[in-house]
Specification:
By secondary structure, this protein is mainly alpha-helical. Helix content is 71%, strand content 4%. The chain has a 4-stranded antiparallel sheet with strand order 1-2-3-4. Strand 1 and strand 2 form a beta hairpin.
C-alpha cells in the first residue's frame, strides 16, 4: 500500500486538514485502483476528483481539483480518500491484484483488435464523449496541416455560449468551460511539436485575444482562466522560440499586448523575449513602445513599459525624457529624475533637477516634502549648510508647522545661527497671530512647547488661546515650577471630562487627577485635594468603571 498510514497522512496534510478530512470519509465514492494510483470522488462544497499516488514512493502524493488542492496542498479530501483506503486494508491486496489484471487485460484486448475493430471502438467512444471527439478532431486537423480548421476549433473551444446563462458563465459552469478552453493550449502545442511553430505563434496570439474577450463574462473565482492564460503565454513563448520569429511582428504584438487588457490575464512580460528578439528585435520593441507612449504620455501602462525598457538598456536619458514630458506641479517628478541621475552617478545633474523642482513649484506650501529633504541633505553633504538653512527657512515661511520649524532648527544649529533664525520665526508668527491668523497662534504655541520655553508659552496662550492638547502639554511642563498654574488647567480639563462617559474618558480623567494630586503636594495643600476628590466621587458615583479606576489608582 505504499506505506500509507494515518501518521503519514497527518504529516502531509497538517493537523487541521487531517482532522477535517476525518469528517469526509463517508463522502468518498467511486474508488478506483490502478497501477500505483487510487482515484475517487469526494463530495465537499461540490464533488471533487481526487487521486492518490502510492507505488514506488516513500510517501504518498496526491492531487485534488478543489481550490486548496489546486494550490499544491494535500487537502482534506485527499485525507478522506487515504483514510477510506486504510479502512479497507484487509481487502487491498485483492483490489491491487484485480486492478493490475484489468490493466493487462485491457492492453491485451486492444492489442488483439483488428484495425477495423479499433476504428469502430474509437468511433463509438467519440459518439458518447464530446470532449474526446473534439480532441481527436484537433489532432486530425493538426496532422493535415489544416490551419483554418484548427483556428475554427480553437474558436469553438473558447466560445462561452454553450455554458452561458444570460450572457455569462456562472461559477457552477466555470470549471467545465475552463476544462474545454484548456484544450486550445494542447492544440497550439501540438502544432509547435509537429513543425508548425509559426502557425502556433499566430494561433496563440488569437487565442489570448479571444480569452480576454470572454474573461469578464466568466465567474473565475477559482482562477482557472488565469491558469489557462498563463499556459497560453507559455505556449506562445515556446512557439516563438521554435519558429525563429518575425522580429518586427513579434515586437509589435508584445507592445500591443503589454498595453492592453490581456497583460493581466497572461502575465506576458516583453522582456522575457529579449533573448529571442536579439538586438534588432529589442530595438523594434523600444521603437513601438516609444510610439505608443508619444500617443498617450500620461498612460500608466505606456509609462511603465517605457521605464522598464529604458532601465533594462540602462538608458537613463530616455527615463528622464519620459518623466520630463509630464512634470508634476509639486516637484515629485523632478525628485524621481534626480534619483535616476544619482543611480547613474550623475550627481551634479541630479542636483540641478532637484533645484529646478523647487524653482518650478509655484507654492512651496504644496511642494513634495521629500524633495525638500533630498535637497537639504544634498546641500549639507556637499558643504553648503547655509543653502540648507535658506531652503528650510523658505519652506517654513510657506508651510508653517511644528515639523518645518524643527527641520529649520536642525539645519540652523549646524551653522551656529539658530538664535537669530529663531527670533525671526517667532516674530513672524507673533505678527501673524496679532493680525488674527489663528493657525499661526497655534503653531507658535507648539513651537514654544517644543522648545520647553514655558514662560513664553504661558504669555502666548494668554494672548492667543490654545486647544486642549496644548493646554495639557503646557500644564505638564509647568507642574514642577508653576504648580498653581498647572492645577488650574488640570481642573478645567477635568470639569469637561466629567460630562463624558466611556473608559477612554475615564482613563484620561484619572490621569488628570493624579497630576492634580501632584500639584497639591507641591503646593502643600493635600487636604484641598482630598476634599476635591471626595466631592468628585459624590457627583460621579454612578460611573462604576470610573470609581473602579480611581480605586485602583489610590484616588
Amino acid at each position: 500500500m505504499g506505506g500509507l498510514t494515518e501518521a503519514k497522512l497527518r504529516a502531509l496534510a497538517g493537523e487541521r486538514s487531517f482532522e477535517r478530512g476525518r469528517g469526509y470519509v463517508d463522502e468518498v465514492s467511486g474508488v478506483e485502483f490502478g497501477d500505483g494510483w487510487i482515484r475517487a470522488s469526494v463530495r465537499g462544497t461540490e464533488r471533487y476528483d481526487v487521486e492518490l499516488v502510492l507505488a514506488g514512493r516513500r510517501k504518498p502524493t496526491g492531487t485534488c481539483d478543489c481550490p486548496y488542492g489546486q494550490e499544491g496542498n494535500f487537502c482534506k479530501h485527499l485525507v478522506a480518500l487515504g483514510l477510506a483506503v486504510i479502512a479497507q486494508e484487509a481487502d487491498l491486496p485483492r483490489r491491487w491484484k484485480a486492478a493490475r489484471g484489468r490493466t493487462r487485460g485491457l492492453d491485451a484486448w486492444l492489442t488483439g483488435l483488428s484495425r477495423d475493430g479499433l476504428l469502430a471502438l474509437v468511433r463509438e467512444e467519440m459518439a458518447e464523449d464530446r470532449n474526446l471527439r473534439r480532441r481527436l478532431e484537433l489532432r486530425a486537423a493538426s496532422a493535415r496541416g489544416d490551419l483554418a480548421e484548427i483556428r475554427s476549433r480553437i474558436r469553438e473551444l473558447l466560445d462561452i455560449d454553450p455554458f452561458a446563462q444570460y450572457g455569462s458563465v456562472e461559477y457552477a459552469d466555470a470549471r467545465a468551460y475552463a476544462d474545454q478552453a484548456g484544450q486550445a493550449v494542447t492544440a497550439i502545442r501540438s502544432l509547435t511539436t509537429s513543425g508548425r511553430a509559426a502557425d502556433a505563434t499566430a494561433l496563440a496570439q488569437e487565442a489570448i485575444g479571444l480569452l480576454v474577450e470572454v474573461a469578464e463574462n466568466v465567474d473565475d473565482s477559482d482562477g482557472r482562466l488565469g491558469e489557462i492564460g498563463a499556459d497560453l503565454a507559455d505556449a506562445h513563448h515556446e512557439a516563438s522560440r521554435a519558429a525563429g520569429p518575425d522580429l518586427e511582428g513579434l515586437a509589435h504584438w508584445l507592445v500591443a499586448h503589454a498595453l492592453g487588457d490581456a497583460a493581466d490575464l497572461t502575465g506576458i512580460d516583453p522582456l522575457d523575449y529579449e533573448d529571442l528578439l536579439g538586438e534588432r528585435g529589442m530595438a523594434a520593441l523600444r521603437r513601438y513602445a516609444v510610439e505608443a507612449w508619444q500617443v498617450n504620455r500620461t498612460g500608466w501602462a505606456e509609462k511603465y513599459l517605457m521605464q522598464r525598457l529604458a532601465k533594462s538598456g540602462r538608458d537613463v536619458d530616455t527615463v528622464i525624457a519620459m518623466h520630463a514630458a509630464d512634470l508634476a506641479p509639486d516637484g515629485h517628478t523632478h525628485l524621481l529624475i534626480a534619483r535616476e541621475l544619482d543611480t547613474a552617478g550623475r550627481t551634479a545633474h541630479a542636483l540641478e533637477w532637484a533645484e529646478r523642482g523647487i524653482r518650478e513649484t509655484e507654492d512651496l506650501a504644496t511642494v513634495d516634502t521629500v524633495l525638500i529633504d533630498y535637497l537639504a541633505d544634498r546641500y549639507t553633504r556637499t558643504g553648503r549648510p547655509t543653502d540648507a538653512v535658506t531652503l528650510r527657512r523658505d519652506h517654513f515661511a510657506a508651510r508653517r508647522s511644528l515639523l518645518t520649524y524643527q527641520q529649520l532648527r536642525a539645519a540652523a544649529r549646524a551653522t551656529a545661527c539658530w538664535q537669530a533664525e529663531r527670533e525671526k520665526v517667532l516674530a513672524l508668527l507673533r505678527t501673524d497671530a496679532k493680525r488674527g491668523h489663528a493657525h499661526s497662534g497655534r503653531v507658535l504655541v507648539d513651537i514654544l512647547l517644543d522648545d520647553k520655553d514655558v514662560d513664553a508659552a504661558w504669555r502666548t496662550v494668554g494672548e492667543h488661546g490654545a486647544h486642549d492638547g496644548q493646554w495639557l502639554t503646557l500644564a505638564d511642563q509647568s507642574r514642577p515650577t508653576r504648580p498653581a498654574d498647572a492645577l488650574a488647567v488640570y481642573r478645567r480639563l477635568v470639569a469637561r471630562l466629567t460630562r463624558e462617559t466611556g473608559n477612554h474618558a475615564y482613563e484620561r480623567l484619572v490621569s488628570l487627577l493624579l497630576n492634580i494630586r501632584e500639584c497639591h503636594r507641591r503646593l502643600g495643600t493635600p487636604g484641598e485635594f482630598t476634599a476635591y476628590v471626595t466631592d468628585l466621587r459624590a457627583v460621579q458615583k454612578r460611573k462604576r468603571n470610573l470609581m473602579r479606576l480611581m480605586d485602583d489608582s489610590g484616588l
